[in-house]
Design a protein that fits this description.
This protein is mostly helical. The protein is 84% helix and 0% strand. The chain is built from 10 helices and no strands. α2 runs antiparallel to α3, α3 packs across α8 and α3 runs antiparallel to α9.
Length: 210
């Protein structure tokens, strides 16, 4: 692969990364409690993306393209997980009062939780695998190096996506630290939780119709 083709692929990854999706709102949700947890979610998302790249490289993700049923089931599982995250986040935000909200330590989310949530969100999103299936052949040279080339593309996608999500986490964390208004933080947490749940419900509804 040439440098030009790698830059073109990186640009495509950037366009997809800045398009709001489950990963963006998930990172935002965790960042509002703790910027480090948001960055951990970004790292988890990057790991999930690399797992999909490995699956595509070795032909495992081709099952998604060949079986509509597998694709539908995976989408429903991912949708249910997003609904769970949204509901759990909303319920957690209701427990915060103006008194305990002053202490940010009470509102912090563990790095492990953020990482696992980011990884599971991406792993249960079949669109990531289909993206590699559809796009990788356009950039992989026909010289017998399909596996290493696909893994390289996966690494680029993970790097670009995680860099954008880390930026989201840092900006969200700085905004919360600057405002330091418990009511505003709680409102933002509930909005992001609602968006996650809505995305999950929409995914499930669309999967059930197809």
């Amino acid at each position: 692969m040439t440098a030009a083709s790698l830059l073109a692929f990186a640009g495509l990854c950037l366009v997809l990364a800045i398009t709001p999706g489950p990963d963006t709102f998930l990172v935002l949700r965790f960042s509002l409690s703790r910027p480090g947890a948001g960055m951990a979610a970004a790292a988890g998302s990057a790991l999930g993306s690399m797992v999909w790249a490995v699956a595509v490289a070795f032909g495992l993700a081709a099952l998604l393209e060949q079986s509509a049923e597998i694709y539908r089931v995976l989408k429903i599982v991912g949708g249910l997980y997003l609904v769970y995250l949204g509901v759990a986040a909303f319920l957690a935000s209701r427990k915060h009062t103006a008194a305990d909200a002053v202490d940010l330590e009470v509102r912090r989310t563990s790095l492990r939780s953020g990482f696992l949530a980011g990884a599971l969100s991406t792993l249960t999103n079949p669109k990531v695998g289909l993206f590699f299936l559809a796009v990788a052949p356009q950039f992989v040279p026909h010289d017998g190096s399909a596996i290493p080339s696909t893994l390289l593309l996966g690494a680029i996608d993970a790097l670009v996506g995680s860099a954008y999500l880390v930026a989201v986490a840092l900006l969200a964390g700085r905004a919360v630290a600057w405002l330091k208004r418990p009511a505003v933080t709680t409102w933002l947490e509930r909005v992001s939780a609602g968006i996650l749940a809505a995305l999950g419900i929409g995914t499930i509804a669309l999967s059930a119709e197809s």
